[in-house]
Design brief:
By secondary structure, the chain is an alpha+beta fold. The protein has three domains: about 170 residues, PAS domain (Beta-Lactamase), CATH 3.30.450.20; about 210 residues, no CATH class; about 160 residues, Histidine kinase-like ATPase, C-terminal domain (Heat Shock Protein 90). The protein is built from 14 helices and twelve strands. A five-stranded antiparallel sheet has the order 2-1-5-4-3. The protein has a five-stranded mixed sheet with strand order 7-9-10-12-11, with helices on one face. The longest helix has about 55 residues. It is rod-shaped. About 20% of the residues are buried.
């Protein structure tokens, strides 16, 4: 069942339930009102007859009393009337049907009236000079009351049928306000997930919460598309530069072999080439950071798609059909609803069932709201990753006052989308540091690469428990260390001496730029990057060592 049909069903059920409840209340109120009016009319007639028959009872004039009672034939609803003397003996009586002179006793309440299965009885005392000399009893059938109630029920049924048609046609149009943006968002998400085409956009339909969500989603796609294009351009430029520099190095080597006299000049050119190669490696590291960003954005988009599917499944599981069965059951017993709810075994369970259904619908609504909050949180996470990458994409080489914990947490945030799915347990052991002066862009580049490598090692290891530990602390008075440890695949001994070489990698899809550019960046910051591992399958620890430069101390100096 599509969300369109669900919205139509919800609106129609709401409308029908409201009209049905109003109709039931109207019938109950009408029944009460008609009974009250009938009792009041019979009481007035009984008082009039009591006044007219007072003298006849005093004089013992039975014929006069019966003549007065015979006048009741103009009221076809009165089926029986009886005047009794003060001793309770029948003084005079009247029967609407002369062939049926049976008397059915009905117990009267303290207000001198009572209801039978098919009739209503009213009694009135006959007072003469302050004394009760007799009573009069009037009995009226309930057919007019039943006819009136049936007429009201038919009117309510007609109104319900007409309102159902109106509700259907209105809901057919109004549901599009909600269903169309959601369906459009789902279709676009599915296209992007399948084709990885970030140029697709969701058409905006309104300025409400759904419109804001669509705007945010389109803005996110625009940023991803822009970053993806920049990444492709950077990659192409990098390939051109690497090819060009390689060719230049080849030419320089030939000149060195053939032109010994020009050695000094060739050495200067070689140093220039090495500097450019170092910058190229740094750019490769930044490209790897951008790749991690796009990878994690893709993971979060999958979570968005899953949350949307879960919301659709939850709505499809609502207890609406069962509620419709209860409504049909009530509608089929409108004529005897009170008796059905009171004495019928199925009817007795309807109120408790309705309460249970309302509680379940309330729980389902809360669950749907939780999933919507998770959907909004995932989209916010995508924004956070992109904004973080923008913050650190500026030119490096400038030391600024920075909280080291923020840089480490940002590196974790860029990589954390795969931790829970792969069962990776993250441990953070941060010492209390003041603000220090560091090159934030270079430190983030190094840490993103180290965390990404540790996550890769843990994912491809066979350990049941996977731990990633990140800690930093002050080492001696003028140095600090940041350690990234894992219990993953480990590093073989022969690879430890060449792991920081340019182009060396053990990943199937690696390029060998990450650790090499990280080591160069650490050296440029007067620090060092080194590794320790006990062997394959025993994990590894990468340590970034930097000068400890408190920002406050630098400002005072």
């Amino acid at each position: 069942m599509s969300i369109k049909n669900k919205l139509i069903a919800i609106m129609m059920i709401t409308c029908i339930a409201a009209i049905l409840l109003a109709g039931i209340l109207f019938i109950v109120w009408g029944n009460h009102t008609l009974r009250s009016d009938t009792i009041q009319n019979l009481s007035i007639q009984a008082k009039i007859i009591a006044d007219k028959c007072r003298n006849a009872i005093v004089d013992g004039d039975v014929a006069g009393a019966e003549k007065t009672l015979d006048a009741l034939h103009v009221e076809p609803s009165i089926i029986y009337a009886c005047i009794r003397d003060k001793n309770g003996a029948v003084f005079a009586s009247y029967y609407r049907d002369a062939t049926d002179n049976s008397v059915h006793l009905v117990e009267l309440n303290k207000n001198n009236y009572g209801f039978g299965n098919t009739s209503i009885n009213v009694r009135e005392d006959i007072i003469y000079r302050g004394r009760t000399i007799g009573t009069i009893l009037l009995r009226s059938d309930l057919n007019p009351l039943k006819v009136m109630l049936k007429r009201n029920a038919l009117i309510i049924a007609a109104v319900l049928l007409f309102a159902s048609f109106i509700a259907y046609f209105l809901s057919m149009r109004l549901q599009q306000i909600i269903s169309q943006p959601i369906l459009s968002l789902v279709r676009t998400t599915k296209v992007i997930s399948e084709n990885k085409d970030y140029s697709t956009r969701v058409p905006k339909g309104s300025n409400d919460e759904l419109g804001l969500l669509i705007n945010a989603f389109n803005d996110m796609l625009e940023k991803i598309y822009s970053r993806d294009s920049e990444l492709v351009n950077s990659k192409n430029e990098l390939e051109i530069k690497v090819g060009s520099r390689t060719l230049d190095l080849t030419v320089v080597n030939k000149k060195l072999r053939n032109e010994i006299a020009e050695r000094k000049q060739a050495e200067k050119k070689l140093k220039a080439m090495q500097a450019e190669l170092m910058e190229t490696s740094r750019q490769a590291g930044m490209a790897e950071v951008a790749t991690d960003v796009l990878h994690n954005v893709g993971n979060v988009l999958n979570s968005v798609n899953v949350s949307t599917s879960l919301i659709a499944e939850k709505i499809s599981g609502l207890k609406i059909p069962h509620l419709k069965q209860v409504v049909d059951m009530i509608e089929s017993h409108l004529d005897n609803l009170q008796e059905f709810l009171t004495y019928d075994q199925k009817g007795k369970h309807i109120p408790s069932y309705l309460i249970k259904v309302v509680n379940l619908l309330t729980e389902d609504q809360a669950d749907i709201n939780d999933k919507l909050e998770s959907l909004v949180k995932n989209i916010g996470h995508i924004k956070q990753i992109i904004n973080m990458q923008q913050l650190y994409s500026r030119k490096s080489g400038i030391e600024t006052p920075t909280l080291l914990s923020e840089v480490v947490e940002n590196a974790i945030s860029i990589n954390n989308t795969g931790f829970e799915q792969q069962g990776v347990q993250l441990r953070c052991e941060f010492a209390e540091f003041p603000e220090i002066n560091i090159d934030r862009q270079k430190v983030l580049q190094i840490l993103v690469n180290l965390v990404s490598n540790a996550k890769y090692s843990l994912i491809h290891s066979e350990n049941k428990e996977k731990f990633l530990t990140i800690r930093f602390y002050q080492y001696n008075d003028d140095r600090l260390r940041i350690e990234v440890s894992d219990n993953g695949m480990g590093i073989e001994e022969e690879n430890l001496i060449k792991i920081f070489r340019h182009g060396f990698t053990t990943k199937k899809t690696g390029n060998g730029f990450g650790l090499h550019s990280g080591a160069l960046a650490a050296k440029e910051m007067a620090g060092a990057l080194f590794v320790h591992s006990d062997g394959a399958g025993k994990g590894a620890t990468f340590t970034l060592e930097l000068p400890f430069k408190p920002a406050a101390a630098m400002a005072v100096t």
